[in-house]
Amino acid sequence: MATSQSINRQDGTRTLLRAGILILIAGLVCLLLTVTVLGGVDRHGPHTNGGWLGLLGAMACIPLALMMLVLGAAKWMRNRGKH
To answer: Which domain holds residue 42?
Structure first.
């Protein structure tokens, strides 16, 4: 029977959390660049094509990262309860 430590190494919890954090950082950087460097955003959207691409990147990365972090946190809590 597998021990709880070997289960933690095999189920990808750390990988999910690490990837979720990195993707969240990338999305926040895209958002920050869109607002500051790439022309800013008003109620009609970004002012430049680069701003639209930055907004697209942020809107793709941030929800994906949050889903990965929620899944990773749930797996981490499940594994913590097995100890």
So the answer is: 14-81
